[in-house]
Task: structure prediction
Amino acid sequence: MSNKKFPKSLFFIIAAIAFTGAMYVEFLDTYNMAVDYETKIDAQWNNNRNTLSQYNLKIQEVVQIPEMYKKDFIQVINNSMTGRYGEQGSQATVQWFKEHSIEIPIQLYQQIQQMIEAGRNEFKNEQKKLIDLSRGYRKATRSLWTGFLINLGGFPSDDFDWSKYEILVDGKTEQSYEQKKLEALKLNEE
Result:
């Protein structure tokens, strides 16, 4: 049996190739992670826009219902009085409205209130997703090794603007943060 030693230079060459390969794989994984973050953040931001738009449209449409109900109700009463009392029935209608107050069913307002609350909660949840994605990407770009590789890969990309992806807040909240002062809510403010 021959006892030949493995040449040290070959060992170092294999180790260098393995290390270079591992670094290349690490770089590609990090690069793909950065692409994934930017794509997901942009997609979530667009989803938030869609969620808010659908919520706004839904509320704008549904708040028309009580007025439509009232208008249709008045028309039914007018038709009923005119059919019963003839053309002078409109005078009876006016008298009837003076004697009776028309109340729009409370369920219509409760439904609108529930839709507002559900829409706000859905939008809040979508905003949380955007916050989590942004937090993860910021953490990755600022960490020592991953941040170095992300920057080496050219990320954050030139067209990625952090300020574009800030969450939406109402004016009163923004003002409270700017002034570093919070006031009690005024529920009956006109």
Observations:
- The chain has one domain: 9-154.
- The helical segments are 8-62, 64-85, 89-99, 106-142, 144-152, 171-179.
- Residues 9-154 form one domain.
- Residues 38 and 157 are 8 Å apart (CA to CA).
